[in-house]
Amino acid sequence: MPALKKFIFTTAELPDSAIHTLTTLSNGFISIRGVPELTETSTGTFIAGVYCDTPLFYRELVNLPRVVSLYVRLDGVPLVPSEEVFTLDALRGIVEYKAKLVARGGYLEYTGVRLVHAKRKEVVALRGKLVSRGVRGRLTLDLPVELNTCNPSVPENICVKLYRVVEKSADSQAVRVKVVSADQRYSVEFAAGAKSSRAALQAYAAGERVGFAGEVEVEDGSVVTVEKLVAASTAGEAASVLNAALNMDFNQLAASHSEEWERRWRELGLEAEGDEEFVDALYLNTFHLLQMYNSELPFFALPARGFHGHGYRGHVFWDTEIYALPFYLILKPEASRKILMYRCALLNAARYNAERNGCRGAQFPWESADDGFEATPREIPLDLRGERKVVIRTGELEHHITADVAYAVWLYHRYTGDDEFISQCGLALLIETARFWASRFEYDSSKGKYVIRRVIGPDEYHVGVDNSFYTNLLAAFNLQLAASYSRQAGDQPEGREVLSQLNVTDSEVREWERIAENVFLPRGADGVWEEFEGYLSLEDYTLPEGCIGEACVPEDVLARVEKTRLVKQADVVAGLFLLRHLFSREELSRNYEFYKRRTTHASSLSIPMYAGLAAYIGKLEEASALLRTAMLADLKNIYANTGDGFHVGSAGGAWTALLFGFLRLEENRGKLTVAPVLPPYLRRLRLTVNFRGKRYLLEVDGKRASIKELS
Amino acid sequence: MPALKKFIFTTAELPDSAIHTLTTLSNGFISIRGVPELTETSTGTFIAGVYCDTPLFYRELVNLPRVVSLYVRLDGVPLVPSEEVFTLDALRGIVEYKAKLVARGGYLEYTGVRLVHAKRKEVVALRGKLVSRGVRGRLTLDLPVELNTCNPSVPENICVKLYRVVEKSADSQAVRVKVVSADQRYSVEFAAGAKSSRAALQAYAAGERVGFAGEVEVEDGSVVTVEKLVAASTAGEAASVLNAALNMDFNQLAASHSEEWERRWRELGLEAEGDEEFVDALYLNTFHLLQMYNSELPFFALPARGFHGHGYRGHVFWDTEIYALPFYLILKPEASRKILMYRCALLNAARYNAERNGCRGAQFPWESADDGFEATPREIPLDLRGERKVVIRTGELEHHITADVAYAVWLYHRYTGDDEFISQCGLALLIETARFWASRFEYDSSKGKYVIRRVIGPDEYHVGVDNSFYTNLLAAFNLQLAASYSRQAGDQPEGREVLSQLNVTDSEVREWERIAENVFLPRGADGVWEEFEGYLSLEDYTLPEGCIGEACVPEDVLARVEKTRLVKQADVVAGLFLLRHLFSREELSRNYEFYKRRTTHASSLSIPMYAGLAAYIGKLEEASALLRTAMLADLKNIYANTGDGFHVGSAGGAWTALLFGFLRLEENRGKLTVAPVLPPYLRRLRLTVNFRGKRYLLEVDGKRASIKELS
C-alpha cells in the first residue's frame, strides 16, 4: 500500500475552481466536482456518455441535476461557509470538507464526507456533521436534488440547460426525478433518500427542487448528523438501487467503497519515495486517472479534461490515445482496451467523416463526443454579440488524430499481446485508417514523393501547412502497420475473415507499403527535421532558457507567431519520441536541442513529450525538471486552468515520460525490457507492470533496479 | 372615476405566463412581471433603458435581479402555492395574489399585495399575509433579492446573464446590491428592507442572494404579516431612497400610490359602459399603456411588448409611433412628445444607419434598442446546434419605419400644435428622414417615376419587393412633410436656424417635392392599389370569412405563401387608413374589400387597422367585431403569446381605431372635429380629449354625442 497521505487543499493556496477539479470524485459512471455541498452552484453531475446537442460545441457532456447539496439555516437565515478545508483521501476515494458556519453566538463546525461509490456505480453518498460552538437556535437542514443546473457556454454569461425534467415526486422514503436530455437521446433517473440523527426530515417537491428538509434545535455543543444517499440510473433502476442502498448506512457504504479503493492501490503496487510534492502529484494524478475508468461500461470515452469540468466539453482528443493510454496500458491494461473500444464503437462515424471530406477509409474527428462525428467548435465568440470571434480550424485540418489511433492499436498490441482485440477490431482500425491516409496522400512528381497538403500538426501556431513532419511520419507508420498486420492476418482464419470482410487485396497492401516507403519528410540541414515544409525559412526566434508558456514571448512576436519558427508544443519532438525506435540517438538529440529553444509549451501536452525524450536520450537533469512540471501541472495549477478540469494529457503524459523515458520499458521481440533511471528527486519507485497477461513487480532505487514476475 | 372593477385571473382561464404579463406592474422606471412572490423563477426586474449587448438580438433589456420573492417553509420544508388567484386592481395600480400553501394539518392562506410606486419611481413594495388554517409549526420566511436571474434566449434552453454583481452587503437595516450590465454601460443599485408582524427578520448575504429571513411559530388561526421594501437606482441613490421609504409603512406607500393612480384615471375622464369583456379590455389596455409612461425620464422608449416580457427583447418598432402614439397623443400628450424625443435622442445613430446603407439623411432601424442602431436579429436558430435557422431580413429591408417616424411627427404637431417641438427636433426629423428617402428613391425613366426597389412592406410574406405601396406612399408623404415644414420654417427665426444648421436649400426642398409628386404607386384594375409591383400577377387565394391567423390557410398554400396574394397584415389598408384624407371613400372601400379576403392577420398589428378603416368607411358591424378582437387580444390571449409581453401595438391600435375610426377625431384647419359612432356593444363612452393644449370632455352614447371644453 502506498504511503499515500491525504491531500489537503485550501483556498489560500489554490483558486476555488482548481480545488473543485482536484476534489472531483468519479466512478466512471457518475462524476461530481468538489463544489462544497453547502454552497449554491450551477455545477451538477456528469453521467458518462450522456451528451447533448449544444451551441458552438456540437455535443457536450450534460450538466445534470446537482445531487450533493446540503444547505443550512439558523433561525431561518441561510448560513455561509468560511475557512473551508478540502481533503481528498485518495487512498480511500473519499472527499472530506470542513468549514465554519459563523452565526450568532459562535459558529457551527461542519464536516462533510462524500463518495461516489467505486463498486455500486449508481450510488453517491454524503454524510454531514454539524457541531455547535456557542450557537443556539433552530437549524434548518435542506438536502435537495436541484433541477436548475445548466452548461456554462461562451461567453461565460451564457448557460444552456441541456435537460428537461419529465417526472418529479416525493414520498416519505424517497424523492425521485427523471430527466431527458434536450435532444431526447438520453434519460437519467435520480432517486434520493436522507436521514438525520436528530432532525425529522421530510420529503418535498417544490419548483426546481426535490429533496428532504427538516429542523432541529441546537445548543452549544450539540451534534447533528445527516446522511444523504442518491442513486442515478440510465436504465430506469434508480429507485431499486436506492432501496438497496438505503438498507446500508453511510459507514457500510464507505467501508465497501474504501475496500475497493485499497484493493486498487494494492493492485497497482505503486510506491514512491522522494520529493514530497512530486510524489503527491504522482499519487494524485494516478488517483484521478484510475477513478475515471469504469469496467462495467463497454468502452472508456475519456475526455481531455476528464469528468472534472466543462473544459473541452467532455470531448475526446489525441490526449487519450497518445498521452493517457500508456498509463492504463502498463498499470490497468483492461482500461486501455476499452479506450480503443471507444474508437471501435465509432468506426462507422469515422467512415462517414472520411467520405464527407472526400477521402476513403475512416477519419477520426479531432474532437469526438458520443457519436464520433467532428465535434470541434468552428468559432468561439469573444463578446456577447458574437461580433468578434476566434476561428478554430483544427476540426477541419488537424488530421493526425487518425494516425494516433492506429499508433495506439500497435502500442496496445505490443504490450498486451491481445490478438483477440486485433481480430475483433484492431485490424479493422488499422486498415480503415490506412485507407484514409492512402487517399489523403498525393503523389508529388516533382519530389517523387507522397505529400500531404494543408494540415495542422500538433503545433497549432502554423495552420494549413504542407507536409507536417509529425503528420506524415505517423501517417506513414499507420500505413506500414496496416500493411504488416494485414500480411500477418493472412496467416490466421480470424484475420483472413477481417481482410475478406473489408475487401483488402494484396495490391492494396502493396500500395500502402509503396506510399509509406515514399512519404516526404521535410528535412533541413544539420539533421534537423523541418516541422513542416518551409518551416526553416521562417523568421527564427529562440526563447530564453526555462521559459514555459507564451508569457516570455514579446507581444509583437506573438502577434506574428505563425511567421516565426516558434512552435506551441512538442511536434517533431513528439513524433520522434513516439517512434524513437526509428531514429538514431544522435538524431533525437539534435532535434530535441533545436526545438526546445523554439517551443513555448503553451499546451500542457508539450512538456511530457520533452520530458520523455530528454530522459530517453540521457539528459536526466533537464528531463527531471520537465517531468516535475508535467506531473505537478494540476496540483500546482501551473497552466492556471485546472479549474476547467483535470489535465488528462498532462497527467497521463507525465506517466508516459516516466514509463518510456525514465524507466525505459520496451517491448522487444515479445519480451519486456527495462533500463530505469530515476529523477534525482525520487529515491525509490515501485510499481506493478502488466505485460502480455503477466504482472511484474518493478522496483527501482538510486542504486539498483529489479523486475520480477508476480505469481 | 371609471367603474373599474378588479381584474381577477386564474390559471384555469389563462396560461400562467399570460397572467404574469397581465399582472405586470410598471412605473416606467421599474417593471416587474406578475410572477408570484412565492415561486422560484428566473424572471427578475426591468429598469427602463437598461439594455445590454446580447447574443442574436444585438442589445436587449437586462433581466435584473428579482426583488419581490417571499419564500415560505414550514418546519424547514419549502411550501408550494396552489389555487392561485391573481387580482389586478387597475384603478389603484395594485396586484393582489392569493394562494394556498398546503402543509401538514391544513394550509396557510397567503395574500400578497404588491406595487411599483407610481410617484416614488425607485420604490417597490410588497406586503404578504399568512393565516394558518390548521397548520402548527415553525414558519421560515425568506425575502431575498436574487442575483441569479438571466435573459432567456433562443432556443429556450439558453439563458444569458447580462449583469455582474459588483457589491453585496447586509446590515441590520438593509441589504444592498450593486450590479453592472455585462457590457459595463449601466449600473443599478438595489437596497431592500423588510419587517414582519411577528418574526424577527435578520439580514443576510449568501451566495447569489441577499435578503431577510426569520422564523415564527404558528398555531391554527395565527396571522403573520411581512413587508418588503425595495429601492432601485441608476443614480447611486438606492440606499437613501430606501431610507426615506422605510420611514413609511406599506399602507402609507400604498395610499400615495393609489392616490396617484386615481388622479390619473380622473385625468383621463374615461368611462365606458356596455359589453363587459370589451369594457374590461379597454380599461386593462389603458392601464398598461398608462403605467409604462414615466414623466421623469427625458424620453419614452416604448418597446413593442412593453416592459411586460422578453418578447422582441425590449426593442422599439413602428408599433410605437403608428399604433401606440395616438392613444397618448389624445389622452396623455406629454407622453407622445417623449415617444418622439426617443427618436430625437437617436437621430445621430439613424444618420449612421443611413450612411452605412449608402444613403443620406437618417434611417431609423427596424428594431431599435437603447442606442438606435439596427437591432433586428439576422437569424434565429431552431435547434441547439444552430444548424437550422430562420433568416430574418426585416432589419435589412423593412424601411418604412423611417417614414412612420415622420408621420408621427406630423400627427403629433397637428393635434398638439407644439411648435417648440418642431423647431427643437421635429423639423430635423422630417428633414433628415426626407433626405434618406430622397437618396433611397431611384428615378425609373421607363416609368417616368421614382421607385424604391427591394424592400419589405408591412406584409412580411413578400420579401425584397419593388415599389411597396405602403412604403412608397409614406415615403412620398415624408418628403412632402419635409418640404412643407421647411417652407413654413423659413418664416420664423427658430425654423430658419434649423434649416441653416442642416444646410437645407431651396433646391433641395424642390427636389423633395419633385420626387414626392412623381412617386410610383403600383395600381391594378378596378381601383385596387397593388400591394407592390407585380403583386396582382401572383396566384390568388381568398380566405374564408372571419378567418384570423394562419390556421385557416392550407399548409401547402402557406408553404408557398410568398407566391400568392395572401398578405400577413394590413399593408395597403394600413397606408390608406393613415392617410385617409388623401383617398376617396370609394377607393378606401374597394381596397378594404379586396384585401380583407386576402389577409391572414397573422400579426396582431393587422386587425386594428382593419377595424379603424372599416369604421371610418361606415362598415360598423364589421368594424365593431374587428375592434373587439383587437381590444381583447391580451385579455383573451388571442394570439396565444401574451405570455411574451403586452401587445402594445394591439392595445394602442385598438385605441387608434376607436379614436380615428369610430369617434372620427380629426384635426381640420386647427380645429378638432368629431363624428362619433360607437360599436353596438358599447352603450356609452366618455373621455377627456387633449387638443392643442386644451382639454375637451367627449361623451357619446347610442343617441347623441357631445364635446365640451374643460376649464
TrEMBL record, chains A, B:
Residues 284-656 form the Glycoside hydrolase family 65 central catalytic domain. Residues 21-234 form the Glycoside hydrolase family 65 N-terminal domain. Residues 666-708 form the Glycoside hydrolase family 65 C-terminal domain. It holds the Pfam family Glyco_hydro_65N. GO terms for biological process: carbohydrate metabolic process. InterPro entries: 6-hairpin_glycosidase_sf, 6hp_glycosidase-like_sf, Gal_mutarotase_sf_dom, GH65_N, Glyco_hydro_65_C, Glyco_hydro_65_M, Glyco_hydro_65_N, Malt_Pase/Glycosyl_Hdrlase. Keywords: Glycosyltransferase, Hydrolase, Transferase. Gene3D superfamilies: 1.50.10.10, Glycoside hydrolase, family 65, N-terminal domain (2.70.98.40), Maltose phosphorylase, domain 3 (2.60.420.10). GO terms for molecular function: carbohydrate binding; glycosyltransferase activity; hydrolase activity, hydrolyzing O-glycosyl compounds. PANTHER family: GLYCOSYL HYDROLASE-RELATED (PTHR11051), PROTEIN-GLUCOSYLGALACTOSYLHYDROXYLYSINE GLUCOSIDASE (PTHR11051:SF8). Belongs to the glycosyl hydrolase 65 family. This is Glycoside hydrolase family 65 protein. It comes from Thermofilum pendens.
